[in-house]
Design goal:
The structure holds 2 protein chains of 2 kinds. Chain A is mostly beta strands. In chain A, 0% of the residues lie in helices and 47% in strands. In chain A, a hairpin with a 6-residue loop joins strand 4 and strand 5 (44-50). The relative contact order of chain A is 0.33. By secondary structure, chain B is an all-beta fold. Chain B contains no helices and 11 strands. In chain B, strand 7 (62-67) and strand 8 form a beta hairpin. The radius of gyration of chain B is 14 Å and the shape is globular. The chains are: A mainly beta, B mainly beta. The A-B interface holds A 4, 31, 40-45, 48, 50, 55-56, 91, 93, 99-110 and B 4, 6, 32, 34, 36, 41-46, 49, 51, 89, 91, 93, 95-107.
């Protein structure tokens, strides 16, 4: 079946521009995560959704970052007034359970954001 | 908060040799330890995981060991093949708000030479 998809795969933005990154989780998956992966580093947690509810946004680095999942399926990560330090790969992951204590997180291919 | 350290950062082996990657974690409350493989241009893929009530788990050529006292866990790959070449990440899970928040290590780039 279809896995987690993300679009666009690559995004180049000029400093100060706003960007929107899309994630389509696996159908039926309740939980959705966003991660930021800097070059040569592991993924870092940004935010977590259970259906449409954003239960944890403690990893969002600033108020320029905003995520939503209005209908409990597709999610969008928005970055306002992009800065060079926002350059990274943004990964989305989904998990079947609503309280995924031990359940596998399935990752998408990521969106590589480059801010010039 | 939780911190995960991973070593080595790069590992080069000959085909057929074994590879070992080691991780340490800081929070004794961590209770779930997955390992992910990331190939170029792709997202991480789970290859094996272990829970804190288990000391060792094996799946074909891959095994993971956990030492809760020392807060160490390791990935062992035997009979390595060129297709094992990738970046491997360990992670430790903190139960937060009823779900597992994953804290990742910095990764190990494994190269298997034919």
């Amino acid at each position: 079946g279809a896995g987690v998809s993300q679009s666009p795969r690559y995004k180049v933005a000029k400093r100060g521009q706003d960007v929107a990154l899309r994630c389509d989780p696996i159908s039926g998956h309740v939980s959705l995560f966003w991660y930021q992966q800097a070059l040569g580093q592991g993924p870092e947690f940004l935010t977590y959704f259970q259906n449409e509810a954003q239960l944890d946004k403690s990893g969002l680095p600033s108020d320029r970052f905003f995520a939503e999942r209005p209908e409990g399926s597709v999610s969008t990560l928005k970055i306002q007034r992009t800065q060079q330090e926002d350059s990274a790969v943004y990964l989305c992951a989904s998990s079947l359970e609503d309280r995924p204590l031990y359940n596998e997180q399935f990752f998408g291919p990521g969106t590589r954001l480059t801010v010039l | 908060g939780e911190n995960v350290e991973q070593h080595p950062s790069t590992l080069s082996v000959q085909e057929g040799d074994s590879a070992v990657i080691k991780c340490t974690y800081s929070d004794s409350a961590s209770n779930y330890f997955p390992w992910y493989k990331q190939e170029l241009g792709k997202g991480p893929q789970l290859i094996i995981d272990i829970r804190s009530n288990v000391g060792e788990k094996k799946d074909q050529r891959i095994a993971v060991t956990l030492n809760k006292t020392a807060k160490h866990f390791s990935l062992h790959i035997t009979e390595t093949q060129p297709e094992d070449s990738a970046v491997y990440f360990c992670a430790a899970s903190i139960i937060s708000g009823g779900y597992n928040k994953l804290i990742f290590g910095a990764g190990t780039r494994l190269a298997v030479h034919p």
